[in-house]
Design brief:
Layout lengths: L2 H19 L16 E2 L5 H5 L29 E15 L4 E19 L2 E20 L11 E22 L2 E21 L8 E24 L4 E10 L2 E14 L13 E7 L4 E6 L2 E10 L3 E10 L12 E2 L2 E10 L8 H4 L1 E15 L2 E15 L6 E12 L7 E15 L9
Antiparallel strand pairs: 1-4, 2-3, 2-19, 3-4, 4-5, 5-6, 6-7, 7-8, 7-9, 8-12, 9-10, 9-11, 12-13, 13-15, 14-16, 15-16, 16-17, 17-18, 18-19
């Protein structure tokens, strides 16, 4: 590898590991109050620009962790490194209020490499879910009575997944893959009640902390059908069995006359309840997940893909008693166009990407299942005479509604990632 790439790779790894080691605010959604928070979408830079599709995507340029079987499409002579950052903006609107937030955070880090002509591996680190909300509710019906209360709720924390993936190609054009995923992180939710009309009343607060630490597996397969020398179809499938996730939970209920520095909990004078579960137990379950996809490839020119995913959250255990769930369903479509990969014009060699998706979310609030719709587009910018590329992806979406006394979210995501592709397994000859 050239010295320039070595220096650049070292700096990128240091920067990304620094970002990943720091607690980051990845959402401001009030919907992150439920379950294990707002689920973070899978996939990397190319997937983000193509509607977060990936079940049937396979190429030799980019890593794709949506389907572990896709690693069999990697170049058997190369080492891959991918890392990315995301700028995330949210606009929240209810019937009587609105607010805006934005932040930049670490998105993912991954490497991939061959272990044989028939086997490939990948390792990566990526956010799994995020909690980040702060809101209050007034009991206005009793404003002039001694029962008037002001309730506030605050939550923060993240879960992260690090994975090891293996893809095998038992025979030509067919591949299978597996991920071993380590899920870890801490989530904290708190509630405070203030009795505004009684100057002698204490604040009443409760706080629940969930520390997650466990492993689960997911699987994938892909089969390629060659139509002719330039055209092919790829059929893909993914599966994750329902798996119990162990976690430690701590719950504190207390009262006091003041709040702590961030206002998330009372400075406890009297402890009303304290529960600490020091032994690991099944705090919640990752639901069964099934996905199918198909992709059409016109060699070095066009890729079109469509897929469907079902996650059975209605059958999964949750870490709280307030979350009502339904099965999550997602339909997604994506495409990539390369005008002329061998052209002298740089614009003709760019990879233009687009996509869209529609999702029925797993949350049911006020007897209404949340929906999520989004569009995406992006571009892959190749570096001269290499497969290394810089990728940009922009996503815009809308989640929820102002009807049913809910909150509508408009969000925008700008993902920036670098894909380094180096021939590490070539034996060089010198005269």
């Amino acid at each position: 590898m050239h010295n320039t790439y070595k220096s650049g790779l070292t700096l990128i790894i240091i920067a990304l590991l620094t970002f990943s080691a720091t607690a980051q605010k990845r959402t401001y959604s009030p919907y992150s109050r439920y379950g294990i928070g707002e689920l973070q979408d899978g996939g990397f830079g190319r997937n983000a620009a193509m509607g977060r599709t990936g079940i049937a995507l396979q190429n030799s340029f980019n890593l794709n962790n949506i389907n572990p079987a896709s690693y069999s499409g990697l170049d058997s002579m190369s080492f891959y490194f991918e890392g990315g950052l995301m700028n995330y903006s949210q606009s929240l609107k209810s019937t009587d209020a609105s607010s805006n937030f934005s932040d930049m955070h670490f998105d993912y880090f991954a490497i991939g490499f061959p272990i044989a002509k028939w086997g490939f591996m990948s390792f990566g680190l990526q956010p799994a879910s995020a909690v980040g909300y702060d809101f209050y509710e007034e009991n206005t019906n009793t404003e002039n009575s001694g029962d008037y209360t002001l309730s506030s709720a605050m939550g923060n924390g993240n879960t992260t997944k690090t994975y090891a993936g293996l893809a095998l190609r038992p025979f030509k054009d067919f591949s299978i893959g597996v991920h071993s995923v380590y899920l870890f992180g801490k989530i904290k939710n708190s509630n405070i009640a203030q009795f505004q009309n009684d100057p002698f009343a204490s604040y009443l607060g409760s706080e629940e902390a969930l520390r997650i630490n466990d492993i689960y597996f997911d699987f994938g397969l892909q089969y390629k059908i060659n139509i002719n020398q330039k055209q092919e179809l790829v059929i893909g499938g993914i599966y994750r069995p329902k798996t119990g996730i162990n976690a430690n939970m701590t719950k504190l209920v207390g009262q006091g006359t003041s709040l702590n520095s961030d206002g998330s909990m009372v400075n406890t004078i009297d402890t009303l309840q304290f529960v600490q579960d020091e032994l690991k137990r099944t705090a919640f379950e990752m639901p069964e997940k099934i996905g199918f996809g198909v992709a059409y490839n016109l060699k070095d020119a066009v890729t079109l893909t469509a897929e469907y995913t079902l996650e059975k959250w209605s059958e999964a255990k949750f870490p709280d008693e307030i979350t009502e769930t339904s099965d999550m369903q997602k339909w997604a479509f994506g495409g990539e166009i390369i005008p002329n990969e061998r052209a002298t014009s740089y614009l003709s060699r760019l990879r233009y990407r687009f996509g869209t998706y529609y999702k029925k979310d797993y949350l049911i609030l006020n007897e209404h299942q949340l929906t999520d719709f989004g569009i995406s587009f992006g571009v892959g910018l190749p570096l001269k005479r290499t497969k290394t590329s810089f990728n940009l992806a922009f996503e815009w979406g809308q989640r929820g509604t102002t009807d049913y006394n809910l909150v509508k979210e408009n969000y925008a995501k700008l993902t920036m990632n670098l894909t380094l592709h180096e021939f590490w397994f070539v034996k060089r000859k010198f005269d």
